[in-house]
Amino acid sequence: MSFAVRSWARSRSLLGRSSSALGVLSLRSGWANDGRPMVRCLTSTYTLDSLAKQPELDSFRKFIEEYKEICKPKEIYICDGSGKELESLTKYMVDTGVIRELKHDSYKNCYLARSDPGDVARVEGKTYVCTPEEEDIIAAGARTLSPGQREGPNWMSERNMDLKMKSRLQNCMEGRRMYVIPFSMGKVTSNLSKAGVQLTDSPYVVASMRVMTHGMGEDVITALKDKKDDFVRCVHSVGRPTDKQDYAMLLPSWPCDPKRVLIAHYPQRRKIVSYGSGYGGNSLLGKKCFALRLASAMGHADLKNPWYAEHMLIMRLEKGDQHKYIAAAFPSACGKTNLAMMMPKLDGWKVKVVGDDIAWMRFDDEGNLRAINPENGFFGVAPGTSEKTNPVAMEMIHKDTIFTNVAYTEEGQVFWEDIGTYVDFDKVKVITWRGVPHWRPKMVNIDGVPIAASHPNSRFCTPIKHCSIKDEEGIENEKGVKIDAIIFGGRRDDTVPLVFQSRSWEHGVLMGASMRSQATSAATDVKSSIRFDPFAMLPFFGYNMGYYFQHWLNMNKKGDARNLPKIFQVNWFQRDEERKFIWPGFGENVRVLDWIFKRCDADVSESSIAKSTPIGYVPRPAAINMEGLVGMPADKLDKLLDVDREKWLKEVDAVKAYLSQQTGSDLPDALRKELSHLEQRLKEKSQ
């Protein structure tokens, strides 16, 4: 049975100026001064006048003053990171309809935000890396392609971007408050951390950055006295449409300018400017913009002590009194967060999480690769998170969490698809992320289009301190944790075995460079497309992809070869002839990690638990601990570990074509040789 309601386009009243379900006010409080006071109880320790008396903070003050003149805010507030500040901001956002409190007894200090339907995700097509020369960003092969054929970062000259941003930023904060957010990615006192200052006109951004960064406010300002000019400058405005019709159609409580969104990264200036969006990675500039795109370029440019900013989880795997730290890169929808918070199904094993999204890595004086999580919270995708897939996340999101674009019940609980909790929809009123009341499964609008309860990219923003399996020791380690293994993964129906190990460091870099993953498909009987996503960094490269590959190859020169992490690739997603997953995944993945754990301590050619194949070292079937795993006969395990030469030769052809097209002459010779050696091994029957 299906249920029809009027479509959004035909009925703004479902969630518009008159919507009482969300507490949205008719006055456009977020857009400009509407006559009401701006949180007058909000007072800061710092003002521009007080900063003028501290010459060691001149660079900090001048940055604020520069954009004060451009953006023309009504007033400026410098965040101190205090509890009183958060309390005042939260009250202001509730009063003005930006967020609503979840008042169910199971939640403590949890809130729900609803973005405008035109502002719901990262906008890669409007995101640029800006340098004087195109070759800094676009590899030689891609420079011969049209922009639509290129993959990786978009490039624009600094001069042209400056002109585009000037027209957008001029007077964009008129009638609003400019919030100044001094923040630290990584612990403030760590040598691996980096400081930033974000200017924004969004209180939602202030509250979210407080969750996601390791320090915000006074502690960072104190650190800036020593850093002087050494901080990343971040400028953000939710924007203001120039077209009156566009303005009239936008959600009153969520200012944005979707048609003119533009995000610019300036690696040589160490600067980020974002205009027109208040959502997630477009506005929380410490996340993907700083911690990946800009940081990857900064690490590459640091010739004295190069470092690496990677789209990787960091987890601690324990068995008894032994432990290993693992960094792992997965494209979206491949279970990265679920792996970071895995509850192992084998006795004696424990997983602890350092981070689920980003790793900053650098070699120490002994040649060990060490990593920190520059973030201090989780910004997870809500749909699909459940007690089955991630019970740890389901527990932690009940405290100090900001939800965005999920559904909620009239009783004040959050809801999304596949949440795993039984709901009697005849008794429980579920309101969708767009304000449609009485939602239930299979609901469609008047045009027959399914209505989603939550947006597919809806999020929870939660402090890491509430994670029950956080690795306190690793998080607090200012030197970073020693990485023992690096895992690359993806979603593949076939070809790629359950797990295999690289033959060498250079071979491992090729594994990362040639990562491919299938996009998730609603029609499970139709094979979905396979896309390349090198190192799971395709949307986040801050510089030339070919140079990035060489930066990884250089690790073998920088570190002690004996201490370099072992490199593995995994694939939890192989399917049988009936399109069903063969491997159970989730907590059972510890069986694969058990093998990886053992291989970290073994010589790469040691053969008791691994056999040499053309693609690398694959487990011997008996080496995978299958104790207690029901429904996995030997023939299924054999299929999971099989290396099909014909399929892999096609894989090599695809990798060759992709790397040639996208990198051309910028592809390092070492990777060309590794690819050639892989092809030769696949053709040799003795291998």
Index terms:
globular; single chain; 21% strand; 687 residues; alpha/beta; six-stranded mixed β-sheet; 20 helices
What do you see in this structure?
With 687 residues, the protein is α/β, with parallel strands linked by helices. 27% of the residues lie in helices and 21% in strands. A hairpin with a 4-residue loop joins strand 21 (407-409) and strand 22. The longest helix has 18 residues, at 645-662. Residues 1-29, 31-37 and 521-527 have low confidence and may be disordered.
Distance between the termini: 57 Å
Counting helices, strands and paired strands, the structural category is alpha/beta
Low-confidence region ranges = 1-29, 31-37, 521-527
* Alpha carbon gyration radius: 25 Å
Percentage of residues in helical conformation: 25-40%
Strand content: 15-25%
The counted number of beta strands is: 33
Q: Please state the overall shape, judged from the principal axes of the Cα atoms.
A: globular
Please tally the helical runs, counting DSSP H or I stretches of 4 or more residues: 20
**Oligomeric state of the chains present here:** single chain
| Mean pLDDT, all residues | 90
Largest β sheet strand count, sense and barrel closure: 9 strands, mixed
